Amino acid sequence: MQLPPKVTQRAFERLAEIGAGDQGQALRVAVEGGGCSGFQYDIRLDQPAEDDLVLEADGEKVVVDSVSLHFLTGATIDFSDELIGARFVIDNPNATSSCGCGTSFSM
């Protein structure tokens, strides 16, 4: 059985701060081909689709499409706010390597 991705409370809190749920939007986390390591994350606000996996807390949603779900099995979606910037980050146990920017990985 594949474990679905997890979303941290900090990520849901950040979505609430920016009012994503109030606007009927969700954080979409997708995996696409490309980037310097072979795959890259596409993280954006979007409308949920009918076949998306929906992870929800306190009225905020994170969605993953069925194709990307395979690549995100067991991953953790978090929000990081550091001196170098604030962003949503993915801790993906399936990635065998990643680039310095953290948005590109290989399996």
From TrEMBL:
<dbReference type="InterPro" id="IPR035903">
    <property type="entry name" value="HesB-like_dom_sf"/>
</dbReference>
<dbReference type="InterPro" id="IPR017870">
    <property type="entry name" value="FeS_cluster_insertion_CS"/>
</dbReference>
<protein>
    <submittedName>
        <fullName>Iron-sulfur cluster assembly accessory protein</fullName>
    </submittedName>
</protein>
<dbReference type="InterPro" id="IPR000361">
    <property type="entry name" value="ATAP_core_dom"/>
</dbReference>
<dbReference type="InterPro" id="IPR016092">
    <property type="entry name" value="ATAP"/>
</dbReference>
<dbReference type="Pfam" id="PF01521">
    <property type="entry name" value="Fe-S_biosyn"/>
</dbReference>
<feature type="domain" description="Core">
    <location>
        <begin position="6"/>
        <end position="102"/>
    </location>
</feature>
